[in-house]
Design brief:
By secondary structure, this protein is α+β, with helices and mostly antiparallel strands. The chain is built from nine helices and six strands, in the order E-H-E-E-H-H-E-H-E-E-H-H-H-H-H.
């Protein structure tokens, strides 16, 4: 297992942090098959306090884990037990650095949970939890299928829902002379919401159910509004939305 140290191991062990840099060397279908074991391994070391944070690289060529430990050798030993490594599906390296400057706890927590400036991710906690639970439920029902096929199915479901939204709009406008008007605007709106749920659920699947779909959506919206040149005044406003007949069903 290749390792690399970017700083000398100076200072107290409390100041040392470690980056486990993982690169996949196998096809994604095999990586997906090993993913459940990898997640169990992550959970084990999060429980012991060795791991601080983890997530996939973007694009998905590997992963990164922020860890803490007494020594680089200790963390390297843990890194070598990763199911990806044991199966020779990935390689990793351990990078040691001395934490000489840190954000205070409150600031760090705020930065890790804030989707955009002035937008707190905590407001999405319930929605993200529901999306994650729904996505896991779908994946569990497909546990015996090839992981790559499951991923294709999750993405294709978004397209299927989009097709149903189009069909509902055709029905609303009566474009089929044989059938006439068969749907209402509420039907179309609900189908569009189904598209969003399917897409956000697929996002949760792709990010290993990190529970961050809504926060990621907020970040994406922030980038798009800035790119569109919209001012802060144009994108901020009252959060309370009156319940209409349309969203009363959702």
């Amino acid at each position: 297992m290749p390792t690399e140290t970017t700083t000398t191991d100076t200072g107290s062990s409390d100041d040392l942090l470690f980056i486990i840099d993982i690169d996949y060397i196998s096809e994604m279908a095999r990586i997906d098959r090993l993913l459940p074991d990898h997640r169990e391994w992550l959970d084990e070391h999060f429980r012991t306090g060795t791991f601080v944070s983890s997530g996939p690289k973007q694009p998905r060529s590997g992963g990164v884990i922020l860890a803490r430990g007494i020594s680089k050798e200790e963390v390297a030993s843990v890194a070598a037990s990763d199911p990806f490594i044991l199966a020779r599906a990935a390689v990793n390296r351990v990078i040691t650095f001395t934490a000489t400057k840190n954000a205070d706890t409150d600031t760090m927590s705020s930065r890790l949970t804030t989707a955009t400036a002035g937008s707190d991710c905590s407001q999405f906690t319930k929605i993200d939890a529901e999306l994650t639970a729904l996505s896991k439920w779908i994946d569990e029902d497909n546990a015996d299928r090839d992981p790559e096929a499951v991923t294709w199915g999750r993405i294709a479901k978004t397209i299927e829902e989009a097709g149903e939204a189009v069909a509902a709009y055709i029905g609303m406008t009566g474009q089929n002379p044989r059938k006439g008007v068969t749907h209402s605007q509420t039907d179309v709106e609900n189908e569009l919401l189904d598209v969003a749920i399917a897409a956000l659920g697929a996002y949760e699947h792709m990010t290993n159910h990190a529970g961050s779909a809504m926060c990621s959506l907020a970040r994406k919206l922030d980038k798009i509004t800035k790119r569109a040149g919209l001012s802060a005044a144009e994108v901020t406003g009252p959060r309370n939305v009156e319940t209409t007949g349309t969203d009363a069903e959702s």
